[in-house]
């Protein structure tokens, strides 16, 4: 292993690359360079190359392939399980963070993989009042985000980030640079749109963009003291399902529900806090009938109206600024500031398949569990950890979401598009603190009760590649993420990367996959 690392280092040196290793740099510098966003999954790479050009990426991949070292690309380092740092010790990390140019040509955005989502928003707005669909957090790098899917509040309207990849320049395992599009290397282009990290390192994307000059509406409804029992939570979600699964839900509206213990920003006196946050692509007057439909659904289910109601018309740029729920107010798109803070969490995800509401009998145990866990909030804070549950409206509108359209499905490696709820349960703490047994038990219970709800209603379950889970065995994650597309992806992998150069513990080659991490392992490498 030491001989391999020395040979790799010599190869990188000979190619005049900028890189770091544990042997040639201080422990502190190497530690900082190796960090992922999620400190729960920290690894020790063999080397970290800082690419200044596509040629640097080619040279780094050539060295990794020559010496049998796993190669991983890192755009922003926000993989849930540290795949940007290899997902394991000993990988060659090719950091493309300095390849961050964003340039608009007509309605096509030329975006390098290290550009952060917040920077893409600002650049496309400044250059032409244009936009593209993407997820929530501004410091996330567009490279990894686009290649695993990229679902967000405008996806029902414009599709996922992956769906809007017009073309890409890709460094393959043999270190050649090729272009992939619907007419050039079309099978690779298909794979990039949802499973791209297994096939190469993208050095430049071309994305479709959309007119963002008209105003939109930021929507936020908060419930807390009006929710007096778990049954109230069930009735609330039943009402939201009635509202969302109606054919009158327009694709211009995207939203999610968040469940957690009350925060200082919530009205006082509640046990559980529920936030419905959304974005509507249109004027406030055009949105008002949707609010009236939601209110009618709440009344029909005997669910309370929100304790706090916010609907504000604003520019698309202001919408994106407001949408981020993590940054500092007034400058949430400052990706330099946000990327300095690291997270520390573990998540589990379920996508409910089909346009089907969860029944009351299925929902009751879910919200009895959430109510009980929220009642223990003070004890959890005392132990230094928190939990939350997101339910993203993935479908709705009688299947009118753009990302679920047949052309989008056919041209993407992600097959699971016909769904209703994308549910994410998370436990987390701060910095390098430990997530103890109580946190693990909470996550296990939240995940189990949602999965049981799906089973009890006969609803199929899928996963989502952008929300990777380290504990899934190979036969599960391949099916949950890629379904019937998995064999096609493996065939392409054997054609383009038979040596499995681009690999992590979730390998696209069946014979290269590693055993899943044990369910009780919530940290992949000791923290200091």
TrEMBL record:
Any keyword Flavoprotein?
yes
| InterPro entries found in the cross-reference section | BBE, FAD-bd_PCMH, FAD-bd_PCMH-like_sf, FAD-bd_PCMH_sub2, FAD-linked_Oxidoreductase, Oxid_FAD_bind_N, Oxy_OxRdtase_FAD_BS
- Describe the location of the FAD-binding PCMH-type domain by residue ranges: 41-212
Entry GO MF terms: FAD binding; oxidoreductase activity
Keyword list (alphabetical) reads: FAD, Flavoprotein, Oxidoreductase
Gene3D superfamilies, per database record: 3.30.465.10, 3.40.462.20
Q: List residues traversing the bilayer.
A: none
Q: Which domain of life is it from?
A: Eukaryota
Cofactor dependence is on: FAD
Q: What PANTHER family does UniProt report for this protein, alphabetically?
A: BINDING OXIDOREDUCTASE, PUTATIVE (AFU_ORTHOLOGUE AFUA_1G17690)-RELATED, FAD-BINDING PCMH-TYPE DOMAIN-CONTAINING PROTEIN
Family membership noted in the UniProt record:
Belongs to the oxygen-dependent FAD-linked oxidoreductase family.
The name this protein goes by in its record: FAD-binding domain-containing protein
Source organism (scientific name): Tilletiopsis washingtonensis
């Amino acid at each position: 292993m030491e001989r391999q690392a020395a040979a790799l280092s010599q190869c990188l040196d000979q190619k005049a690359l900028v890189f770091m290793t544990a042997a040639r740099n201080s422990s502190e510098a190497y530690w900082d360079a190796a960090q992922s966003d999620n400190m729960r999954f920290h690894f020790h790479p063999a080397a970290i190359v800082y690419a200044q050009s596509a040629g640097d990426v080619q040279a780094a991949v050539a060295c990794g392939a020559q010496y049998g070292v796993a190669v991983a690309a890192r755009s922003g380092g926000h993989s849930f399980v540290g795949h940007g740092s290899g997902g394991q010790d000993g990988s060659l990390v090719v950091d493309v963070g300095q390849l961050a140019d964003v340039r608009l040509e007509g309605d096509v955005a030329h975006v390098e993989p290290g550009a952060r989502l917040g920077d893409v928003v600002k650049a496309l707005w400044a250059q032409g009042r244009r936009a593209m669909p993407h997820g929530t957090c501004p410091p996330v790098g567009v490279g990894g985000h686009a290649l695993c899917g990229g679902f967000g509040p405008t996806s029902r309207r414009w599709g996922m980030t992956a769906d809007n990849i017009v073309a890409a320049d890709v460094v393959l395992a043999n270190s050649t640079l090729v272009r992939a599009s619907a007419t050039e290397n079309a099978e690779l282009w298909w794979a990039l749109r949802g499973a791209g990290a297994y096939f190469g390192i993208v050095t430049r994307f071309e994305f479709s963009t959309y007119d963002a000059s008209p105003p939109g509406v930021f929507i936020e409804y908060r419930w807390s003291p009006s929710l007096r029992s778990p049954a109230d939570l069930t009735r609330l979600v039943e009402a939201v399902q009635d509202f969302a699964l109606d054919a009158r839900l327009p694709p211009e509206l995207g939203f999610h529900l968040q469940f957690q213990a009350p925060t200082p920003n919530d009205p006082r006196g509640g046990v559980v806090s529920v936030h419905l946050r959304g974005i509507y692509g249109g004027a406030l007057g055009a949105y008002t009938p949707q609010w009236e439909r939601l209110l009618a659904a709440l009344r029909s289910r005997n669910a309370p109206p929100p304790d706090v109601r916010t609907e504000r018309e604003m520019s698309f740029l202001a919408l994106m600024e407001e949408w981020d729920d993590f940054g500092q107010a007034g400058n949430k798109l400052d990706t330099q500031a946000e990327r300095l803070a690291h997270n520390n969490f573990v998540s589990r995800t379920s996508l409910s398949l089909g346009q089907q509401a969860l029944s009351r009998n299925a929902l009751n145990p879910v919200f009895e569990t959430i109510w009980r866990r929220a009642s223990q909030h003070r004890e959890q804070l005392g132990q230094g950890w928190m939990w939350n549950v997101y339910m993203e409206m993935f479908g709705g509108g009688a299947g009118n979401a753009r990302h679920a359209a047949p052309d989008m499905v056919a041209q993407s490696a992600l097959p699971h598009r016909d769904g209703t709820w994308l549910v994410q349960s998370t436990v987390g703490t701060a910095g390098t603190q430990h997530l103890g047994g109580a946190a693990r038990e909470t996550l296990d219970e939240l995940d189990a009760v949602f999965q049981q709800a799906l089973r009890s209603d006969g609803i199929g379950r899928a996963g989502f590649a952008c929300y990777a889970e380290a504990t899934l065995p190979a036969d599960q994650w391949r099916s949950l993420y890629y379904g019937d597309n998995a064999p096609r992806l493996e065939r392409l992998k054997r054609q383009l990367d038979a040596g499995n150069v681009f690999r992590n513990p979730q390998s696209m080659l069946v014979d290269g996959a590693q055993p899943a991490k044990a369910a009780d392992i919530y940290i992949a490498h000791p923290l200091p």
